[in-house]
From TrEMBL, chain A:
This is ATP-binding cassette domain-containing protein. It comes from the Bacteria. The keyword Repeat does not apply. Residues 15-252 form the ABC transporter domain. It holds the Pfam family ABC_tran. SMART domains: AAA. One of its GO terms (molecular function) is ATP hydrolysis activity. Keywords: ATP-binding, Nucleotide-binding, Transport.
From TrEMBL, chain B:
It comes from Mucilaginibacter agri. The keyword Transcription regulation does not apply. Keywords: Membrane, Transmembrane, Transmembrane helix. This is MlaE family lipid ABC transporter permease subunit. Coiled coil: none annotated. Belongs to the MlaE permease family. One of its GO terms (molecular function) is phospholipid transporter activity.
Length: 257, 270
């Protein structure tokens, strides 16, 4: 499926990262990353496993702290936020986890309303139910509302995880490996859902993946993380139009598997 | 030519390094535990209050432990009375049995038995539950959705055990005394009212107070240890198992240490 037309405002940067560095002991994962995400844009971050893609979005969401560098999210510097400001910011930045991270002791309904109830305590029961039903309808899983996460398939869990992210109507959505571990048909459905989210919620997104079909289908722009830095960026064709062996190997691996 | 035996010197150096490393790790752990406890006091009593979740956790800790506490408490009371009888009867002092039973149960057995059962049943479950939530990123998911997972998961569970263990301990004392009554009634034909009068005769306000404080401390310890181990668990499913196991062992160990310390302190006031 081709990428639908999107309204990207290149004048407005929602995430701006400069010279970001992060190490774990002697493992230097990010070695000076620069990145801009524009309003309404789907940016795909490609890279092999263990290259620090997930670390990057965990720093953006405040789950990890950077060793050095500047991370500006919606105009706020992540290095200078107190707990209250960080909480306020997190409501505007949704995070869809690789393994969905659904609360396994709660039903789908409770999972989705959990962030809403805690962040909007004045909402009535009726308003909460309406919003939960709306977001579940948007991901096409209204019928699962009373099911437990253990009763759902992998693809359904991913969708519910995305729905839980969308309930707070975030300005930015961070997807961590949205198609990992799914069959090709479900992957296509998830890719379509990511595009629908972009159209419906007008949210910007960073999509972390090593799945080139996902990258091609969902990305307005693609950046490639190699050896802790963004080495290539542009459209899908621009990124892979190179003689760099590392990039070619990545492409060949994806399309010969 | 004699070749110097380098390994003879290397071994103590290696041992010393290992010892220093584990010692420094122990201090780091202690520092982290203290920070964890301080964070609990900082966050537990500020809004928003999760009353509904607290009630649910109190139900999980309290009501679901009742059957085990009833059985264990009753048997402890019954057996303790039965085993004490021969020694007392040698001196013709079986009439002291109710007093002996009440002192032993109120001062030591009820809080201790309750704490050990709760550590085994609840401490492990808190460790496993939070550990599993940590490794499956559910705690991170809470954090990124603007919810404070420490407050929602840790504070609620620690408060629940701190509130519930004293109640369970009081209930365990009552059931154990009933176990003692059954034995005394069978052998001496003592009436219920006489038995109860004799039970309360030797007890002072300090006994009730000490028993209550002890139970509160035990409950807090079980909750905080279980939460600390689970909240900080890592290394996948293996880490979850370790967190659950370590929560029980550490909580039980600390309960015994606290028992000794509190008995010593109460002794100064007696």
């Amino acid at each position: 499926m081709a990428k639908p037309n999107t309204n990207i405002d290149y004048q407005q940067t929602v995430i701006s990262i400069r010279d970001l560095k992060k190490s774990f002991d002697t493992n230097h994962v990010l070695r000076g990353v620069d990145l801009d995400l524009y309003q309404g844009e789907n940016l795909v971050v490609l890279g092999r496993s263990g290259t620090g893609k997930s670390v990057l979005i965990k720093i953006i969401s405040g789950l990890l702290t950077a060793d050095s560098g500047e991370v500006m999210v919606l105009g706020k510097n992540m290095n200078n936020l107190d707990r209250h400001d960080l909480r306020e910011l997190r409501i505007k930045v949704g995070f869809s986890f690789q393994n969905s991270a659904l609360y396994d002791s709660m039903t789908v309904r409770k999972n989705i309303e959990f962030p809403l109830v805690r962040n909007s305590p004045k909402l009535t029961r009726g308003e909460i139910d309406k919003q939960v039903a709306e977001v579940l309808d948007n991901v096409g899983l209204l019928q699962t509302i009373n099911q437990m996460p253990s009763e759902l398939s992998g693809g359904q869990r991913k969708r519910i995880g995305i729905a839980r992210t969308l309930i707070l109507k975030p300005d930015i959505v961070l997807y961590d490996e949205p198609t990992a571990g799914l069959d090709p048909i479900t992957c296509i459905e998830i890719n379509e859902l990511i595009n629908e989210v972009q159209q419906l919620y007008h949210a910007s997104a960073i999509i972390i993946t090593h799945d080139l079909t996902c990258a091609k289908t969902t990305g307005d722009r693609i950046v490639m993380l190699l050896d802790g830095k963004f080495e290539r960026q542009g459209s899908f064709e621009e990124v892979f139009d190179t003689n760099d062996e590392r990039v070619k190997a990545f492409y060949d691996y994806n399309f010969t598997q | 030519m004699d070749i110097p035996d380098s390994t003879a010197e290397e071994v103590p150096v290696k041992e010393r390094h290992k010892l220093l490393k584990s010692l420094s790790q122990a201090f780091v752990d202690l520092y982290n535990v203290v920070r964890f406890i301080l964070r609990f006091f900082k966050e537990a009593f500020i809004p928003p209050y999760e009353g509904k979740e607290l009630l649910r956790q109190c139900y999980e800790v309290g009501v679901r432990s009742l059957a085990l506490i009833t059985l264990t408490g009753f048997i402890v009371g019954l057996i303790f009375t039965k085993q004490s009888r021969p020694s007392l009867s040698e001196f013709g002092a079986t009439s002291w049995l109710p007093s002996l039973v009440s002192i032993a149960i109120m001062r030591a057995l009820a809080p201790l038995v309750t704490a050990l059962i709760t550590a085994g049943r609840v401490g492990s479950s808190i460790g496993a539950e939070l550990g599993s939530m940590r490794v499956t990123e559910q705690i991170d998911a809470m954090e990124v959705s603007g919810t404070n997972p420490f407050k929602y998961l840790v504070c609620i569970r620690v408060l629940a055990t701190t509130i519930t263990v004293p109640i369970l301990s009081t209930y365990a004392a009552f059931v154990a005394i009933m176990g003692g009554f059954l034995n005394v009634h069978q052998n001496e034909g003592t009436s219920y009212s006489t038995f109860i009068t004799q039970v309360f005769e030797p007890l002072t306000f300090l006994d009730f107070e000490a028993s209550l404080i002890k139970s509160i401390v035990f409950g807090f310890t079980i909750g905080i240890v279980g939460s600390y181990k689970g909240y900080n668990s890592s290394r996948g499913t293996e880490g979850v198992g370790k967190a659950a196991n370590s929560a029980v062992v550490t909580a039980m160990f600390l309960v015994f240490i606290e028992e000794i310390v509190i008995v010593q302190i109460v002794g100064w006031f007696r």
